[in-house]
Specification:
The protein has 318 residues and is an alpha/beta fold. The protein has a single domain, classed as Rossmann fold. It is built from 10 helices and 12 strands. The strands form 2 sheets. The protein has an 8-stranded mixed sheet, sandwiched between helices. The two termini are 27 Å apart. Bound molecules: adenosine-5'-triphosphate and magnesium ion (MG). The site of adenosine-5'-triphosphate has 13 residues, from β2 and α1. GO terms for molecular function: ATP binding. Belongs to the ABC transporter superfamily. This is ABC transporter ATP-binding protein. Keywords: ATP-binding, Nucleotide-binding, Transport.
Length: 318
Amino acid sequence: MTTPLLEIKGLKKHFVKKKSILKPSIYIKAVDGINLTVAEGETLGIVGESGCGKSTVGRTILRLLEPTEGKIIFQGKNISELNKKEMRDMRRHLQMVFQDPTATLNPKSTIREILTEPLIAHRINPKERKALIEEMIQIVGLTVGHLNRYPHEFSGGQRQRIGIARALMLKPQLIIADEPVSALDVSIQSQILNLLSDLQKQFKLTYIFISHDLGVVEHISDRVAVMYLGRIVELSDKEQLFHNPLHPYTKTLLSAIPKLDPDDERETIILTGDLPSPSNPPSGCAFHTRCPSCMEVCKTVSPEEKMVEGSLVACHLY
Ligand SMILES: Nc1ncnc2c1ncn2[C@@H]1O[C@H](COP(=O)(O)OP(=O)(O)OP(=O)(O)O)[C@@H](O)[C@H]1O
Ligand SMILES: [Mg+2]
């Protein structure tokens, strides 16, 4: 097997909240021991309910958040050990696309200035910068004329195109897209997804695609990881995950997708209760408090990841 582009081993991100000097600190286990490999050129989808830790995984991989524990190995190099300057240089290879580009595009800057910023930071000379910017704005489906405008002059879909252009300016290998189409109308969503697919082919990009929307993840991913309360409960090829889900949580998530086909025989499983707090996760299997197949062992013993029918699954049923 060739070396994966990215390998994550035992990644944890615990946030510490100190309410007062007298009270003990509260640890929010947003990411609590994740293992992943991402092959060059593939799209790995990450799904799960709001608050399960998807964005924290993405941000920790890029070290926008410092990991509490674990290794992030990119092209064979452990980037969790790089110092600030080394990480800044490394960042040209790993970029992020966010849900709401409005929040990340400076309203006082023109699009040209916004796209120039990463090039200046990585010391690209002015002549080359101009050519790169004018090429990239057209690659994402806008025009050179748009470069002198300000972010508020664009629609949501166009702003996301600008966000994507900015992420691609330094020709990265890995893009982490965190809910990149969730704020957009459905018709615009498919345009942006198609753009991401085209760019992937053109630039041989690798994607980690984070979304709570299973339909979107099914459309774009090669493999899918399902997260629950800071952990991956199931990881497999897209076809396998959507047609033969194994973990009771995956089954529940899939059963919530509206059935458009009358022959669709999926039963609807209603998930009761809210996602427990990551500051006080349930003992044993974190899903046991909501699991329709809960057994005694699930309440006390945390399940290990196993390969079952080609899927990686963490559940005592297997
Ligand atoms: N900076 C922070 N400080 C403290 N807690 C945080 C911080 N960022 C996230 N959390 C907590 O960590 C947990 C995971 O949050 P995260 O944003 O990663 O979830 P998510 O799966 O991306 O959710 P969503 O689908 O709503 O975007 C949540 O309980 C959240 O409240
Ligand atoms: Mg999020």
